[in-house]
Amino acid sequence: MRRVAIISYGMTKVDRHWNKSIKDLFSEATLKAINKVNIPKVDAIFVGNMCASDLCDQNNIGTVVADHLGMIPIPSYRIEAACGSGGAAILSGFMAVSSGLFDIVVVGGVEKLTDGVGKKATFSLGKAADFEYELFYGITFASLNALIMRRYMEVYKVPREAFADFAVLMHRNGAKNPYAQLQFEINRETVLKSEDIADPIKLYDCAPIGDGAAVVILCPLEDASRYSDSFVEIAGIGSATDTIDIASREDLLLLKSILIAANNAYKMAKVSPSDIDLAEIHDAFTINAALSLEALGFSKRGEFDKLLYDGAFEPDGLIPVNLSGGLKSRGHPVGATGVYQIAEIIMQLLGEAGKNQLKNAEIGLAQNMAGVASNSYVTILKRCR
Amino acid sequence: MRRVAIISYGMTKVDRHWNKSIKDLFSEATLKAINKVNIPKVDAIFVGNMCASDLCDQNNIGTVVADHLGMIPIPSYRIEAACGSGGAAILSGFMAVSSGLFDIVVVGGVEKLTDGVGKKATFSLGKAADFEYELFYGITFASLNALIMRRYMEVYKVPREAFADFAVLMHRNGAKNPYAQLQFEINRETVLKSEDIADPIKLYDCAPIGDGAAVVILCPLEDASRYSDSFVEIAGIGSATDTIDIASREDLLLLKSILIAANNAYKMAKVSPSDIDLAEIHDAFTINAALSLEALGFSKRGEFDKLLYDGAFEPDGLIPVNLSGGLKSRGHPVGATGVYQIAEIIMQLLGEAGKNQLKNAEIGLAQNMAGVASNSYVTILKRCR
Q1: How many helices (H) and strands (E) would you count in chain B?
Q2: CATH at residue B35
Q3: Is the same domain home to B242 and B168?
Q4: Among A58, A69, A133, B159, which is least packed by CB within 10 angstroms?
Q5: Chain B residues with CB inside 8 Å of A96's CB?
Q6: ipTM score for this prediction
């Protein structure tokens, strides 16, 4: 298996980009990535996206973005795994390069949700759930996660405030990230006094609705130094699925697809959770953060709040989490999120993260998922220079 | 690059499956494929689909089908390249196995269009075109192809009847295919007297709206004989894109993405068009057949009718075309079509094609595309036993 490097990245700010289309956003991120490196060509494009068909009346966006970028006739198609589309696109790009079929590959994610703000976006996002057994009955992801958060608080006696305090940390990080949608700090009361979305989930427990695109460029590790002075290796990559409806799960509080994807990625990278210097995790709701950190092996089950108050997830903690601000503050353009996470880890590993820069980070982990982890993608990146 | 075999296939009949859901159809095809071979496990699933979000309110169908099949927690996600989704899924599966990341992979396509019969399906399929410059103005694929067919007839002086006679041939083949949606013969008058869809395109120039799923199982070539007595190799595979809107093309009558994808596939398989024993081509409209056969190198440009009347495309001709009946008669469940084509070639190569069986076929070609070839997938299969 040919080893795979990531030699560049590009992102748009996550925002309500009323005046930019899907192809504008994707092209902006791609050109940023391409302009940083010295590559002779691009061989293929993989685009993660969930909602363009529903909210922009556009399918076939692999071709749409290849055309807009002037990259025709290279192969380009779309990858969809709901909110895990970005992570699935990274996996696709990894296989494309590691197979030897393609050498230099653009992997991106793009989403434009604000065209469908309100019920239209919520319904479209709900299609990540089981239509027949969940969405049809009016359930949303806020309500599914509310059930799980209520149970978590009851089983583990974790106070509701802990979730608010995690959101506070996310906003503290995001306030220093120029790509973040919500670049401001909040306090515990901001969360607790915000509107109920689905009790006990408040508005500030939720990632915002936003638009954005993130892109990375992959190539064989052995060629990477020809194209760029600094790059990272995809040292481990794992993916797994879980039941599409949460009612079929034996244990509501164990996100098994994350656990399995992470174990596969750790094994491939020959590392353990304690070797990871920083992580970008999928905190679409604050409860997702708790369960993700536990499934990734960064916290024992039910002890998310203990580690939070020990400062473990702070920028100078044991395992800095979401220095970007995470989905909560950086934003969650769903099909792009998994690629944003990878780009943010690379920024840190290469020392390009500005005000949020961590010292001496060598190994980073990104965890992306669909819905309540009905599928998951875990990628481990290692600094190479 | 690890060489890749296809060891099994399964299909549902293409039909109006009112009583079967996407997951029912996909599972039926998958279980047929799995039950034919002796495999210890499946490592991943790739699902080609275009319209489930629009017509079935279901995204994330990679997880949906993995769950329904009882195959959780293996990785499973969706590939979308409009009507080329099946071909793109085959390419994804090829890279997955050839990279060495996965060994035994299920690649399938599924589509359920009849839930949206009428305007809803037509609009959903139109999202393969450029929304901003084509679909927004009310254009459909019938009207885009009508423009091209009119031009073809004018430039090459090909009579309208030739397209009707191609449809007659497709129905003659499809009448003998138990998986075909339209299992009956027609004559020239059936086509010429059918309703106008978009002049000069008549109803019988068009593929029908239908539901179905097709699945194949891929594994490393070196392992194939452990799992099955008979199998084929993916000897060549190519893909390319073209402008999303047809107005931007220099030559309306040259489907460049097919030409480039085919040349890449021929080169990889070290064969030329004259080595191909049979082909399944993407005749969503009869004009597509003419342009596809020319771009694939089976006919000189503008001479489609000459070869047709020479009998070249007949079952006993120079290059038997669409022994399945093609999209015209077998049917066109869009995201599944590219996988149906592969399954049909395998049936022929392995001598399992029943009444349509060709003698001594060794090399087959499948050509799948999106819209008016805004992207294309060409796969060349070689018999191995």
Answers
A1: 14, 11
A2: 3.40.47.10
A3: yes
A4: B159
A5: 95, 99
A6: 0.97
Among residues A227, A259, A283, which one ends one of the domains?
A227
Task: Give the 3-state secondary structure of residue A363.
Answer: strand
Statement to judge: residues A216 and A361 lie in one domain:
no
Q: Is the distance from CB of A381 to CB of A6 less than 8 angstroms? A: yes
Per-residue pLDDT of chain B (385 residues; tens, 9 = 90+): 899 999 999 999 999 999 999 999 999 999 999 999 999 999 999 999 999 999 999 999 999 999 999 999 999 999 999 999 999 999 999 999 999 999 999 999 999 999 877 788 999 999 999 999 999 999 999 999 999 999 999 999 999 999 999 999 999 999 999 999 999 999 999 999 999 999 999 999 999 999 999 999 999 999 999 999 999 999 999 999 999 999 999 999 999 999 999 999 999 999 999 999 999 999 999 999 999 999 999 999 999 999 999 999 999 999 999 999 999 999 999 999 999 999 999 999 999 999 999 999 999 999 999 999 999 999 999 999 6
- The reply to whether B128 falls in a domain is no
* Residue A358 identity: L
| Count of domains for chain A | 2
> Could you give the CA distance from residue A260 to residue A240 in angstroms, rounded to a whole number?
6
Q: How far apart are CA A169 and CA A189, in angstroms?
A: 13
- The C-alpha of A126 sits at a distance from chain B's nearest C-alpha, in angstroms, of 9
The C-alpha atoms of residue A289 and residue A41 are separated, in whole angstroms, by: 39
Q: Which two tokens stand for residue A158?
A: 């974790």
Beta-carbon-side half-sphere exposure of residue B85 (alpha carbons within 13 Å): 34
Could you tell me the residue range of the domain that residue B296 belongs to?
138-208+234-383
- Tokens standing for B318? 């120079």
Is the domain of B332 the same as that of B219?
no
Give yes or no for B21 touching A (CB within 8 A): yes
Cβ of A375 within 8 Å of Cβ of B62? The answer is yes
Please state, in angstroms and rounded to a whole number, the distance separating the CA atoms of residues A127 and B3: 37
Inside any domain, residue B86: yes
Measured between CB atoms, does B92 come within 8 Å of chain A? yes
Q: B284 to chain A nearest CA, in Å?
A: 17
Sign of the Cα pseudo-torsion (A91, A94, A96, A98, in order) = negative
Q: Is residue B288 located within the same domain as residue B142?
A: yes
Residues A273 and A360 in one domain: yes
Say if residue B188 is in the same domain as residue B299. Answer: yes
Shared-domain flag, residues B164 and B148: yes
Q: What are the residue numbers of the active site of A?
A: 83, 332
Residue B215 lies in a domain: yes
Residue B182 lies in a domain: yes
Q: State phi, psi for A286 to the nearest 5 degrees.
A: -60, -35
Strands (E), A72-202: 76-80, 105-112, 196-198, 201-202
- Residue A55 and residue A140 in one domain: no
Q: Is A244 within 8 Å of chain B by CB? A: yes
Report the Cα B94 to chain-centroid distance in Å.
16
Question: Which residue numbers of B are catalytic?
Answer: 83, 332
The answer to whether the pTM exceeds 0.95 is yes
> Residues of B with CB below 8 A from A144's CB?
none
Domain boundary among B197, B227, B257: B227
Q: Where are the beta strands (DSSP E) in chain B?
A: 4-11, 44-48, 76-80, 105-112, 196-198, 201-202, 211-220, 232-241, 278-280, 363-370, 375-383
Cβ distance A98 to B101 less than 8 Å, yes or no, reads: yes
Please report, for residues B157, B318, B324, B356, the alpha-carbon distance to residue B310 in angstroms, rounded to integers and kept in the order given: 17, 9, 20, 20
